[in-house]
Amino acid sequence: MSSLKPCVEALYEGVGRVADRIPELPKSEVVLVRLLMLTAGALLREFEDRLKPHGLNDSDFRTLMMLYSSEDGSATPSELCVLAEQKPTNMTRIANVLAKRDLISRSHATHDRRQVLLRITPAGRRFVAKLLPPMFPAVAESFACFSATERKTFEKLLKKLALHIDRTVDTDACP
Amino acid sequence: MSSLKPCVEALYEGVGRVADRIPELPKSEVVLVRLLMLTAGALLREFEDRLKPHGLNDSDFRTLMMLYSSEDGSATPSELCVLAEQKPTNMTRIANVLAKRDLISRSHATHDRRQVLLRITPAGRRFVAKLLPPMFPAVAESFACFSATERKTFEKLLKKLALHIDRTVDTDACP
DNA sequence: GGTAAATAGTTCGCTGGTGAACTATCAGGT
DNA sequence: ACCTGATAGTTCACCAGCGAACTATTTACC
């Protein structure tokens, strides 16, 4: 399948050679970015492979999970856009897919008739409850190389990075 | 732009609520997967925004960089597919794009006439040399929240994870 | 109360990426 | 030499996601 080892090796060699020609290159940061994307990409592909037999892709599933895990099982498209990192355009398509399969229902909000209310159906909940457990072993296995301490450290650093990048992008956009 | 903070918060809350209903849920692993994808996604989007003015996307650029950073400035499409994590179909398109802009050249390998040899042109090298340096500050800033030790730790863990996942996926495919 | 600006969602046309089918070349056994 | 199967790359038809333009509703301001 998608073998990461050659990529990782080539990454280190390649960055070294580029740095020979362009010495200002921030080597360790570039390595981090690419490692991050490599890893995330591999995990995503594996996950989507497991989802495909059920006719969903990651964004569809993520959206459904947002509803499943929300306080009252409902949300508006715009809320879901923020949480599932999607653009409104695509959220319309996702809602269409999920609604067609009766995993969610569509209705109008009463207090603001522009808004649409998406709600997970009982069938949607059953679907999630059937779908999730078989995936647990694979997810656990992905991080089996980490000790409990390492997992904790990794999570702490990742979270710190995520929130830092968030701030960076925001301030980039404003001035 | 794409604010991560609400996503991160919703992630922790959501995983908690799901675990209430499905107790076997491997909470910390799920959090890690999503954090990883969230972060990688945000970095990718930011990077592509900086690339867009030059008319390239991430895969195009990554492919060009593979040639730039290779031993002799050349490679076959299949080699690039492995290194840039692309399917042959898409590599054809990428090669078309880069060749049309004279950043790379196409020729046939002599010893095996099935193979195509892609080679970065002098113009391609100049393009990379012009393009890269202005991006360095942003890349450095992305990881500015890390101390030197943290960066080192993070890289070590990421690399370990990448190689572990690699092995996992491989052995998954075989039996 | 009525017009202007903002907001929620959808539709449309386009780009990027994929699997399946195809062509051309090479390698191996007979 | 010749057929079989593998390999490198391309073409084609399709899906997912995006920006721009549009509709419907709400809010703000005079």
UniProtKB/TrEMBL annotation, chains A, B:
This is MarR family transcriptional repressor of emrRAB. The keyword Transcription regulation applies. The keyword Iron does not apply. Keywords: DNA-binding, Transcription, Transcription regulation. It comes from Luteibacter jiangsuensis. It holds the Pfam family MarR_2. Residues 29-163 form the HTH marR-type domain. PANTHER family: HTH-TYPE TRANSCRIPTIONAL REPRESSOR YETL, TRANSCRIPTIONAL REGULATOR, MARR FAMILY.
